[in-house]
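Reopening closed ticket. The problem is back. First fold of the pair:
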Amino acid sequence: MDGDIVLRPIKLRDQRAWREVNRRNRDWLRPWEATIPPPAPGGPLAHRPTFRQMVRHLRSEANAGRMLPFVIEYQGRLVGQLTVAGITWGSMCSGHVGYWVDESVAGRGVMPTAVALAVDHCFRTVGLHRIEVCIRPENGPSRRVVEKLGFREEGLRPRYLHIDGGWRDHLVFALTVEEVPDGLLRRWHRARSQSNPGIRHRPGN
């Protein structure tokens, strides 16, 4: 939690609010949303899961230590989703972050704060060493999130994910725990204060 912004585990009872936010933001989210590629000839057809199926899958992956599924609340209402996925242990200790947010709160610092909360949790509590964010080059709002937080750009992954009906290139941004010794949220607060001297931050719990 940081002021009005809360990052918490997704729950089955979030269904109504989650669906409502998705419905209102259909056009805003569609160009950046993961899609299921066409099946190979003779292969099984894949279907988009229901909300309940999605939550059960996320919980199963979380219980296996491979994922951290969250929703984002702003001023008491659900406004987005953030998932730390692909968690790998052993000699790598890494994961990657994906996220989306309600267009009505975009530009208010909600998503950078949520990402910073998630990264600090991954580094300080979970024990990961590296976090990646992979973003389509055309996705300006999402790129601004990682740029504001000081993620390093590492290069291009051609045709990396199936998005909006096709295989799309993604830019890779990353941070390791050594790069944010005081925590990413604290660094984000400093950056906001320097660019907007009038901003005062209300620390969370």
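Second fold of the pair, where the issue appears:
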Amino acid sequence: MYIPHSEEERRDILSFLGLETLEDLFSHIDPSLLSKPKLPEPKSEEELRRYFGKASRVNRELLCLAGFGAYDRIIPSALWQLLNRGEFLTAYTPYQPEASQGTLQALFEYQSLICELTGMEVANASLYDGASALAEGILMARAIKDKGKRVVLSRGVNPLYARVVETYLLGYGDEIVYCPIDQDGHTDLNRLEELLKDGQTHAIGVQYPNFLGYLEPLEDIAKLKNMYEVPLVVVADPIALSVLKPPGDFDADVVVGEGQQMGLPLNFGGPYAGFFATRERYVRKMPGRIVGLGEDIEGKRAFTLILQAREQHIRRERATSNICTNQNLTALANLLYMVLLGKEGLREVALHSLSKAMYMKRELLRMGFSEVFAGKHLWEFPVKHPNMEDLHKTLLREGILFGVLLKNFGYKDTTLLAVTEKRTRDELDGLLKKIASLKVA
């Protein structure tokens, strides 16, 4: 909500601060960093429409082979037609148990499908995004274990997610130790066991598949977590779960992830929706809101918010989190995506992505690119080339986003490619032909 100050209020504030002008308030900032926007003359509605129409035609849609946590996938046309209905689009995030029955039922169905997807017993009504969901999962694991001051995160966890975890844990004084990955691109199990032996670890965080695209040995990781009684938090890819065994089958304690792939456009990084699922026995340690199904005083079916364990609703010392909201609209987009595609549709999306990725990798290896690790992956994988940075820049000028360069994450001359079902054979062949013409091999 934005309420501007009146001129009188501004004068009172400046007087209280001992300043004369608004510019004095920012005098400590280097003048070169401050800019005064030069706005054009006002335009009529029709002039603005023409102006932005012309500007939009200048934009060029990139051929996207980048992933790293956000993916360019096909969104069914019906999804946003339904979501743009006023009762969904303008609905406020439900704070009260007596919120709209339609909104609550939709969130209940969302929770149910997240449980089915992850193999867990209970899910909340979503969190901000995948990164904050992981951080909340680590805090929940901390509360479950209630012993030790160490978190072990696999180097296979998205580095951007790991930074959010570091920020969340800053006030707790916990140590975060990163477990390396082995030559197959998996979490190093020997090193993981070494870190668990002294009993000071209260949470293990891994990603499935990991951020490089490789499939983690969850069964072996689960054996270690059970042996040393350390809660396991898994960041899962929701599309991958349509073809992989869910983390719940490997005795994971918390499963989180990013819902962007299910019906949400890339949109400069958001808004997205994080999902969060756990075991029923841990439900009272769970952050966020949970919608449940009950009966009203007349015995009729009724949906209601049954758990809101945040500090604004219960005693502060008993709150599980200060998460203030859920991503109502974007979570409903996830729900509609799952409903419109169904179980087999999700599986088809995964299989089409996988087959196209394998075709792309095979052709790149023939052209002189090399693999980074020897493990199994799905539709996301890293490849190396000595001229990778120049190739990436050249292709970007041609309107092709050739993956995400990993030089800032410890992998020189490497790009992380993600090939989704949206990429056509003609697009991939055109890209390969373009690379061949550049004679980079």
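Update: turned out to be a display glitch only; the data is intact. The radius of gyration is 25 Å. The CA atoms of residues 205 and 217 lie 13 Å apart. Please close again.
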